[in-house]
Prior knowledge:
mainly beta, Pnp Oxidase, Chain A, seven-stranded antiparallel beta sheet, globular
Amino acid sequence: MNNNINPEQLKQAMRTWITGVAIITGHHEGNVHGMTANSFNSIALSPPTVLVALAQHTRTRHLVKDGGVFGVSILNKSQRKLAQRFAGQTHSDTPRFEGVETFNLETGAPLIKDAMAYLDCKVVHSFDIGDTTVFLGEVLRAEIGTDGNKPLLYFNRQWRKLAE
């Protein structure tokens, strides 16, 4: 099969897809890191399983791969600056977790305080496709946080919120 689509065409098409925003975190041997991601989905209820896709060159991907666990903090509209920071758009010279309040559930993966929801996950399968690793994580704990009806959204390279 001849694939004539180039990466920029796919990016332009995907900019029309509105997504929620989450920070994915990992830890291994005392190292922690996190990144903003919108490549995240729930894929099964039994067993409870989510999918996250992380670029292979990222520190977060390496920690999730080596540590075998990850945390998901689903952000609310008041956390846009955190989303930008963990996406590397602001404060790139500051460690991402500096001054950020976190907590842990079962796996020890850091979760961002005051997010809308939290998932604590154990990697049950992973595979590489292109320059990305897809992780399937069994959700060990799921908790609701604050501002449950005010999500931070991402659409056409801009941070958005739902209309009131």
